[in-house]
Amino acid sequence: MSKTQLRWLALTLAAVIVAAGALLWVNSGSDGPRVVTEDRVVATGGAQLDTTLYLPEQTPAPAVLVAHGFGGSKESVDGDARELAQRGFVALTWSARGFGRSTGRIALNAPDAEVADVSRLIDELAKRPEVQKDGDDPKVGITGGSYGGAISLLAAGYDKRIDALAPVITYNDLGQALIPNSATTEPLPGSPSANAFAAQGVFKRSWAGVFFAAGMGGAGFANPSAEAAEPGSDNDDQLDSQDPAAAAAGDGGGAPQGGLPPGRSPGGDQGMGPCGRFTEQICAAYTELATTGRASQSTVDLLRSVSPVSVTGRITQPTMIVQGEQDTLFGLDQSDATARQIAAAGGKVKVVWYSGGHDGGRPGASLRSQIADWFDFHLRGRGSDPGTSFEYAVQGALRAQGAPNVRTITAPSYPGLNGTATERRPVTLAGPQQTVVNPPGGNPGSITSMPGLGSVVAGSSRLASRLAVDMPGQVARWRSEPLTSQLLISGASTIRLRVEPIPGQPVPEDGVVLFAKLYDVSGDGSRTLPASAVSPLRITQLPAEVTVTLPGIVRPIEAEHRIEVAVTTTDQAYAVPSQPAAFTVSLADNAVQVPVVPGTRSAQTPPMFALIGIFAVIGLAIVAAVIAAIRRRRADDVDESLVDVPLVIENLAKEYPGGLKAVDGLSFRVEKGQVLGLLGPNGAGKTTSLRMLMGLIQPTEGSIRVFGHKIYSGAPVLSRIGSFVEGSGFLPHLSGEANLRLYWAATGRPAEHAHFEEAIEIAGLGHAVRRKVRTYSQGMRQRLAIAQAMLGLPDMLVLDEPTNGLDPPQIHQMREVLKRYAATGRTVLVSSHLLAEVEQACTHVVVMHRGKLVAAGEVADIAAVGGEATFRVDEPDQAASVLGELSGVTDIEIDGKQVHANLDGTPRSKALGALVAAGVAVEQAGPRRRLEDAFLELVGENKA
Amino acid sequence: MSTNNVHTDPTAIGAMEEAASHEHLKVQPDGSVVGYKASRTLRLRVELARQLRRRRTQLMLGLLVLLPIVLVVSFEIGEANPNRRQGGFVDLATASAPNFVVFALFVSGTFLLPMIVAIFFGDTIASEASWSSLKYLLAMPIPRHRLIRQKAISSGILSLFALLLLPTVSLLIGVVWYGAGEAVSPTGDAVPFGDGVMAIYAATIYIAINLLWVAALALFLSVSTDAPLGAVGGTVLVAIVSQILDQITALEDLRNYLPTHYAFAWSDLISTDIDWSEMTRGAFSALCFAAFFGFLAIRKFTRKDITS
């Protein structure tokens, strides 16, 4: 039984695995709604743009332009465009000037170049019948990451046909992004991640280099390819993304080797000078920056004219600004400025900070779907209003099952947009005035980030914090006391610093360059630089007292951790002055002001179907239980005429699956005071009958009545039966005595009804009754089981092969026990395959064979005397005639060499004497044993 | 006498005869003897006494007490990586007592806790069958629906006790070693100590609800086989296969139908704003599986022929 069950279980499991595999295989082939693409080259003033139009299943539909990042091409946003088309938008991608197969020179989103190109593309869209229009005005949205985010903002500023936009990880002012200065003496805006945005910044050398290289057609480090972690997202994708090889194997757009599409040689038709495909103007500005580390006013103006900051004052379209928290290129301060400027212009702004960025990864599936929701609502009024809330992701340190855990916190609006100010908590720092030194040539420098490799490095927080190295002598630090509770920094903290020259030491003519950082210091002193971010600052006049905006981060600082603000003179990612210098730095105000944006966790409301389902399942279970209870309350089936008859079996049959009839048409009756022997060879159906008597097995046919009550499983009348069927059943870890007591306790009957003492004495185990049952011999268990059956002195005792395993004296005692027990007016039913056993122990007998009743009656009746005798003789015929002549002798039968006769009162010795006198040789003379005849016949048949 | 000097004193037979001839059992209308009542059979106290005296039960509970101690000792030995924010949630475990408990629940959640529930429920009827004592329980008679109900309830009490024992011992040990600090969630949220303790016990209750499917499946296998190991092993095997399938991200939303999919939804409780959606889904999923297997178990047990 159990083996087949286990096999069945294994089969089911195998089936589940196969089904899962099949689904996996089928799933990998499905693509969702069908999307039709159309490639075209659009000629604009000064360039031939390579475009692809993605048409959804249902048109007309609003259009969304999807712009690619720096160093990419229209292929790198193929996935995003396809996703939008599947969401029911007409999507348009194009390779910007100088990228992919498009011709022209890169002007960094100049109004008369790239921005004009977008207007030209919208003209083309307006001509398409698939695009939904209001009169002549097509419904158009625009989105894109990084360089593509900037063109989104710029195009929305210049072309009012754009109805909604969602710029992702982009800059507000390229000048401030590449040449930032975070020190100011002016008051700061009230938004959470505002940066000083002061002039005369420090050149972000390595990122600028990466960018310039991307424009040369080289590596595409500039854009993240892996997805950032999201709340509730599954671990595996992100785990892969931390593996550089896996990232490289991803889509070509952002992968390090994928800068150029196949078939196009670097330079190509453009002619590869030192400027690559950049316009002369841009090239000259970069060359100036890269060689001097400083920007002239014309360069600053040029960068500003191609930056969104030049048009944000005109953007009134609904804007969803998505910025990354892991971004040393375009930090949270850039989106902060854009949000403020658009809100001031009257645009509707929603700000989302997600856990990725240029160092972290591109938006994940749920954020992309949020962007599509934005267009759904603002382009065609579908879905619920996404509103103007502010959401930010908090990345926890705990990794359940390898997944970086992210939760999203939602605030009603972005603080600082409507005259409100961000809450700032002061955290007191302690530390003296410290001297810092700028080494000649700015080398060795502190290390904080690895531009372009950020996503690889930041994926492992362990690696990222190891990267942050401050050189001794170049750093000043101030630390807080350990925090008493967690502090969630959400934005850019500010601090006031005083920088003073050391008398006699030179002050560089370029001013003092410093890098301010905020460290999370754990209880044991190890330091982590959140987001690997630093705030560079340049102070031109010493002594100075300035407000420094630290990098915009989202970071929970745990209790027991400290906040440390460090100021260094060097950073390898920036161009630092080469002249040696030394000066002192101290705190002008001993508190760092930490921005805190309270909000609620973006919790989904509990799904209704599950809530209702829980109650439905519980309700169903209760209903099922009630129905089952009602059905169990069957009327007790009593035959009043039989209430004094211990056992009546009528036409009982049991057929096992497979057609084996273990019991077939068995009927017999047992009266009080009888010791009934159920006799039959092994396999006769004795045990099956007894199991049916105990309600363990459901009969196929017929009925069993005990004291008139019909037997079924759990019938109350079973409490009048004490049983021992097919072996003992004890808890092996308990003693014999404990077993008996727990058995009785389980019946729930009063302890005084049990008669423990007498039962234990009957078992006669002596001191062994206190040993564990597992140490018992077969015979000891047998006796304990019989004692258990006698607990409560039941009206009927059912014993299956009770003498098995007992030795002859014990068997003798057992017979005595059974006889005397029955003599008290009780009934004993004993099964046995031994004829002698039944003959000696029982008053009545039922003989069974192959499930059928063979004989039944009093043992004395069937087995012995009553006048019948058997003679074994040499001349049976002669013997029969001799016996026939004796008076009163009847029923003479000849059976081989035996002659049976009913002597009826005639002494056997007299009959024997007559036979001998007649000259018959008598070998044997005795009572006739009908039972033995029958039984031997059966056993013989059994053998055959 | 041969069999270990075991014999019945002849006077014992006399005493038995004496007692039997004086006592004649009275009978109730339903045919049972006076003193018998189906609703008094196999009371929980008795069944718990039967189970608690087993070495297996004692070992299991002992293991749960020992586990937090083993964890603390391992942390003390392996203090190689001092930065607690770096390596993931293992490093957060030593941050505070609630975090230590969360860690203990995490490490035991995949295998140990389902296995304990599987043992208590899978063994309960199959072991009686393997000792042959099941037939005597049924012949007392304990009605079958009552037997399976009492067995299930007592296994449930033992499982719940075991599930509560682990966080309680971990909490005590955690307070002694790591102090009563804030609980830091997997997503970096911080919860004060008092709320953290509440969350831990709420999480334990969620785990108990979520493991209902294990209980019901184990009970079903327990009434289907006479081999206790088969019932326990079969259940654990299903749990493992479910966890493996849950790792295959390509199965996407189909994984939501796996019984183990929401096993760790309780981690949402360690938070300042609690998101109940995953836990609601998890409870629903567990209840559905539990109802299905529970129904099968009861149906099978009340109808089957007891042949062992």
From TrEMBL, chain A:
The record's Pfam families line, in alphabetical order, gives: ABC_tran, Peptidase_S15
Q: Tell me where on the tree of life, at the top rank, the source sits.
A: Bacteria
- Quote the biased-composition stretches of kind Gly residues, using this chain's numbering: 250-274
Q: What SUPFAM superfamilies does this protein's entry cite?
A: alpha/beta-Hydrolases (SSF53474), Galactose-binding domain-like (SSF49785), P-loop containing nucleoside triphosphate hydrolases (SSF52540)
Q: Indicate whether Transport appears among the record's keywords.
A: yes
Q: Which GO terms describe its molecular function?
A: ATP binding
Q: Output the PROSITE patterns linked to this UniProt entry.
A: ABC_TRANSPORTER_1, ABC_TRANSPORTER_2
| Keyword tags | ATP-binding, Hydrolase, Membrane, Nucleotide-binding, Transmembrane, Transmembrane helix, Transport
- What positions does the domain ABC transporter occupy? 647-875
Q: Which InterPro entries match?
A: AAA+_ATPase, AB_hydrolase_fold, ABC_transporter-like_ATP-bd, ABC_transporter-like_CS, Galactose-bd-like_sf, P-loop_NTPase, Xaa-Pro-like_dom, Xaa-Pro_dipept_C
Locate the region Disordered.
223-274
Its transmembrane ranges are 608-630
Q: Which PANTHER family match?
A: ABC TRANSPORTER, ATP-BINDING PROTEIN (PTHR43335:SF4)
Q: Which family does it belong to?
A: Belongs to the ABC transporter superfamily.
What protein name is recorded for this chain?
A: ABC transport system ATP-binding protein fused with dipeptidyl-peptidase
From TrEMBL, chain B:
Q: Where are the transmembrane segments?
A: 59-77, 97-121, 152-178, 198-220, 227-245, 279-298
* UniProt keyword terms in alphabetical order: Membrane, Transmembrane, Transmembrane helix
Query: Source organism's superkingdom?
Result: Bacteria
What Pfam families does UniProt report for this protein, alphabetically? ABC2_membrane_4
Q: What is this protein called?
A: ABC transporter permease
Organism of derivation: Kibdelosporangium persicum
